[in-house]
Amino acid sequence: MAVSQKREFTRGTLAKESGVNLETIRFYEKIGLMPDPPRTASGYRCYSPDHLKRLKFIRRSRELGFTNQEVAGLLEMVDGTYACDDVKDIALAHVALIKNKVADLVKLQSALETMAAECSGGDTPDCVIVDRLLED
C-alpha cells in the first residue's frame, strides 16, 4: 500500500495506512512504543510520516513474534545507535525461541494424534482421550 503523501495524519488515517487498529495505536502510545504526537490548536493529534514508519516497524516486529518489551528494545536501538551485529544477535535469539516452540508444538501434535488413534469413538461416555487427560 502506498503511503499517503500528506505530511500529517489523523489517528484514523494512521491506522488505515499502517494496518494497525485504532485501539492498538492508543495502547502503543500508553506503553511508550509510540511517542505522543503533537496536537493542533483544536487538540487533534497530528501524526507524521515518521510516526507511520515507526508504527509499521512495530507491526512487522509483532507479526514476527517479538514481544512488546522486545520491540521496545529494538526501538531503543533504532532511536539511538546500534550495530547490525546487535540486531542480528537479537534476531537469532528469537529464531532459537521459535525453534523451541515448534519442537514443543510437534510434541503436542504427536501426543494428541496418539490419543486420538487409541480412541474408538462412538457415542459412549468412555473416552481414552478424556481418561488420559484425567491422569495424574
Automatic annotation (TrEMBL):
Keyword Isomerase in the entry? The reply is: no
Pfam families for this protein: MerR_1
Q: InterPro entries under this entry?
A: DNA-bd_dom_put_sf (IPR009061), MerR-type_HTH_dom (IPR000551), MerR_fam (IPR047057)
Q: Which UniProt keywords apply?
A: DNA-binding
Which Gene3D superfamilies does the UniProt entry name for this protein?
1.10.1660.10
UniProt feature coiled coil, ranges: none
Q: Where is the HTH merR-type domain?
A: 8-77
Q: Which PANTHER family match?
A: HTH-TYPE TRANSCRIPTIONAL REGULATOR ZNTR, REDOX-CYCLING DRUG-SENSING TRANSCRIPTIONAL ACTIVATOR SOXR
What protein name applies here?
Helix-turn-helix domain-containing protein
Species source reads: Kordiimonas lipolytica
